[in-house]
From TrEMBL:
The active site is at residue 297. This is Homogentisate 1,2-dioxygenase. The gene is hmgA. It comes from the Bacteria. Gene3D superfamilies: Jelly Rolls. Hexamer; dimer of trimers.
Amino acid sequence: MSGIEQARKTAEGLEHSAGFGNQHSSEAVPGALPHGRNSPQRAPLGLYAEQLSGSAFTEPRAHNHRTWLYRIRPSAAHPPFVRTGNGALRSAPFTETVPDPNRLRWDPLPEPAPGTDFLSGLWTLGGNGDAAQRTGMAVHLYHANAAMTDRVFSDSDGELLIVPEHGGLLLRTELGLLRAEPGHVALIPRGVRFRVELLDATARGYVCENYGRPFTLPDLGPIGANGLANARDFLAPVAAYEDVQRPVEVVNKFCGNLWSATYDHSPLDVVAWHGNHTPYVYDLRRFNVIGSVSYDHPDPSIFTVLTSPSDTPGLAGVDFVVFAPRWLVGEDTFRPPYFHRNVMSEYMGLIEGAYDAKTAGEGGFVPGGGSLHNMMSAHGPDRETFDRASAAELKPQKIDDGLAFMFETRWPVTATGQAAVADHLQQGYDDVWQGLSSNFRP
């Protein structure tokens, strides 16, 4: 049985624990979880008790992230880490180029070299902030054609929001297994170790590395108690462990660089756990879209799935926004997104189909590609979309032929040097707005 076939078989029928931010608990072997205390004198079944803290001990209870792990060997039992090559992975602060006010768009990443796994296939487009100061974010893309065999990754700099665009992923984490297909997103919290196996011959997608406060569900305000992403639709893994003793490379991203150590065992050896610092997977098609039933296109913030709050209420370090299938019924309304300039900076990607404000096809906005509209850059529908929407019959219209998303951030995104000169950077992106000439008739 091939590695892909084995991964598919493993991914079939995975069990989950539902609910975003819950205090989950799970044990792969009955009796592995202690009762009445977190760290008994002797943990059950000869396991080691260990706490993984994603927040400071003294942060308010509502913002405190921690999970107790009951594992075969403690994480402390490892040799020294040594610096290893970063490949095409970059981190904040981004200083290779200067922030660019121009509108930029990229085609998908080219095919990876043979033997490229998820980690070696990470390619950084840009970002902002400072990883060591735990502020800001980074936009990465990945392309892979091999599993991470005897290789495990963890990110001390931030949490990873993985957005598959092509090919499914089997995520083996310390806390259990998750399956992420195109149309899903997977969240790996800061510091959680994981390995990526492929469910198809190749895989491609996007990653938002969030250095700041952990993603949470946005407040709903006047919307009420329900809508947007429902907490019950986020699925956490159940405990599953590896008890293998052979060399395993463990790679840690720390303050922007990759560090490697070779363990004599797999660190994915957690037999039981409880807490709320957990991975999740979420099906974007379950997003409960809220929209206008009278007139005008609502602001895109109405499509926010997850948000990383900053020190200023309402001004996110990064928002994750999805443009999911929905009905458009607005009367006397230009229905695609309106022309605008925004204090926030927007990176947009396309998972499938076409986006309703941009022309698809070769040289256009295509799945696997992405666009960057930095702070106050003027953007909106291209000329072809404007002409079509301005003359369209305003009958109810179902938008269900595309799935797009946006990473929106309070700070400008500075492109990496490799992104600024990449062969797949589209030249002449500004041309899509040519022909929007004056129609003024005083």
